[in-house]
Amino acid sequence: MDSLPSHEICPVEPFGGFVVNLNVTTTFHRDWKDWDVCGILVISSDCEGGGTVLHEVGLIVEARNGDFMLFPSRRMSHYNAHYKGMRASLVYHTDGAALNWLSDRNGWLDQINFHRGLS
User: What is the pTM of this model?
Assistant: First the structure.
């Protein structure tokens, strides 16, 4: 995204952002606001279980420390299974809300103090 304040480059480009999950078990869901895909990077070495369940394809991905997976999070229902131990992951997303940022900086475009930081 080339429209960040001070023309900075997004540190997780081509993704719009990321979430740090520490010891999280998610429920069955879809990420309706994602544009396309999300990526999951597993960063746990002391964990048993916790696989990512991709409902429509009937698949459980048992990712290990350092594994990275991509899937269409908007179109595919998913959750992560229960686990034992310590579990962490980085979830990179393509957040559709970024369109609001591109069009009017989430409503802040006309704010003079904020606008100065964009040049």
Answer: 0.73
